[in-house]
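In this section we walk through a basic example: taking a raw amino acid sequence and producing a predicted 3D structure, encoded as discrete structure tokens. The instruction is simple. Fold the sequence below.
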Amino acid sequence: MTWSELLNSKELAAKTALSEDTVRTLLRGVEPPADTVSERVRARVKALADAYLARTGKRMSDLAGNISRELGVSAFWARQVCSGEKVPSVEFLHGLVGFFGVGGGEAFFTAPAPEALNRALLPILAALQPRPEGPEGATDPLAAVRLDYDDVRGIALRRARDLPPDRWSVLNATLKALLELDESEDAQ
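The resulting token sequence is shown next.
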């Protein structure tokens, strides 16, 4: 696979509920325009709702009805939230995490764009690491966990040696942000 296939902006946009433009901007190493948490939540819920409608062929009224029944809110309110007009309450947002099956909990909707993209890039980087094999030739499922963060970063950066300088910067910044995020979570 080429780096452009691995870092496919359309696929990354679908995984993060960010716009393709925002993903491309971040992959070039440029900060996207500032936004508020409310704007992020509205935009990402709308992106997930639009993707759901496109995937299922259902209408917005069907989606709103499903959410209404499953989460105990009015269909009118569900429609307003799914169309990006209103910001859901914390409880409703929590329910949308389950309804749409997104990883990362409420942070999926609230995290700044660079963090959202970092979460989507982490599995891609993990898949690029070589998997040590056990004594019987079986892949050790815990091997990746045992790797030091510096090892993961080193492996990813060595594999990225042919990237253009702007993508190299994005990859390095992504890894650094992920390490800092993990360290801050460990400190709590």
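Looking at the output, two observations stand out. Residues 111-187 form one domain. The two ends are 38 Å apart (CA to CA). In the next section we compare this with other chains.
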